[in-house]
Write the structure tokens for this entry.
Amino acid sequence: MDLRERLILEQQILQRDGLTQFQIYSNAASGGYYVWGECHTNSGNAYTLWSPIPLHYPYDCPPLYIWKPNPLRGYGGKSINSYGLSHQMHTLNSGPSGEVQICHWRSERWHSGITLNKVLIKALIWLEAYEQHLTTGKPINEFVRTMQ
């Protein structure tokens, strides 16, 4: 199955699983693909997620960014990006435009059977934990176990 066929299947899985706020798009300029969508947490706050699809997907793990809001502020107004690569916050290095990159899967555990719906579900869980961080000041890893 080539990448385009895989992404058609992935879009069907997103629709089937009720993740209709996310769509897979083609980037005509680069010839690549990406996932984009706005989601809302249980408290009603809106976040835009962006995941550029690697050229060798599904064999390479896709990065996942909180596109909006940017900058993403944490407890007390501190930028989430100021934590950098952080196990406590489940974050990786920031994206190309300063977006927060969340850790959703350990690269050594990634395999081609993992679908984008699972990545996006982990992002939704991360956002709920992030909002608990905003309220309590506790790090995200107190609300979410280590991402696989």
